# Entry
Amino acid sequence: MDEPIKMVDLRGQYLKIKEEIDAAMQQVIDSTSFIGGEAVRRFAGSLSAYLGGADVVTCANGTDALQVALMGLGLERGDEVVVPAFTYVASAEVIALLGLRPVLVDVDPHTFNTTAALVERALSPRTRAVVVVHLFGQSADMEPLLRLASEHGLAVVEDNAQSLGGSYRFADGRVASTGTMGTVGCTSFFPSKNLGCYGDGGAMTTHDPLLAARLKMIANHGQREKYRHEVVGCNSRLDALQAAVLDVKLRHLDEYCAARREAARRYNERLLAVDPSAAHFTLPAEAGYARHVYHQYTITVGGGRRDALREYLASRGIPSMVYYPLPLHMQPAFAPICRVAGPLAESERLAGSVLSLPMHTELTESQQDRVAEAIADFYKHNP
# Structure
């Protein structure tokens, strides 16, 4: 009997590093230091080293990371923040929660990320920041975005929740990790992420030590020293058990990213054979400036047949997901409060055509063969 195919195989991943994980968690339990403490400090230091020395401020989850980052920038109510329309709701949710105005822009049809040209059209006298989302594991084209931000005095917040472990190559050959190029980077350690814990967790990264200190203060009730509150903050912290898990898994992150890239290569090979002319679907593009780490392997299905293909795969025991079925400007909560900057045709098209196939570190060749065979059978019977 064929082994079941999962969208994410966290158990299989855990079993390979079980002894390391169990020992790390037991060390925290034995210490009874569950909030803060050495485990959190150690992981923050490890992540900083992995990211080339950027300051790391840990927090409770990726959404909190985005919110605290925006709070740390000193924006005022009514200020505008540019954000892609095709992204997870958290990227814009925190903007609205802080009384700022989300300004929605379209995305590139190939990379699914926004571009400097699209952001530039959205600028107004009230624009103060841009949230750049590195979607599905691939960096946005950062060099022109950073240049635009510098010209207009904008802060750049990198939503790096799906792309930790990825990188960007500048025109001069310099390579930087995603999440370290803008004013502040934000990431999530949700269990299914490329670096995921066994609960919730998040972090912010910056090369500005003063901003790092401010972010740390905001995440700790607005206090640098106990019971002295300099600003109105929040309570957002990474607990020690999750930090211990993350410190172990960080040592395997490059291995995990390599496994995802290899799985993507195999998908490309097999699916290109199914549809060599891209008449039915388009494979994910990898930009020359980016090292894609494939948090998702997302194809775009033509002819309005995405949902039919998804149902057929499900009938064959193959899971798939739609990230994201409704762009932000069409969401009831955001339609009344956002400013839409120009047509959002690509965001709307992608929402109706993207389909993410199973992608994780434990994905086997035989499982990918079954996925490709099922897709081939769908088009054979539905030409």
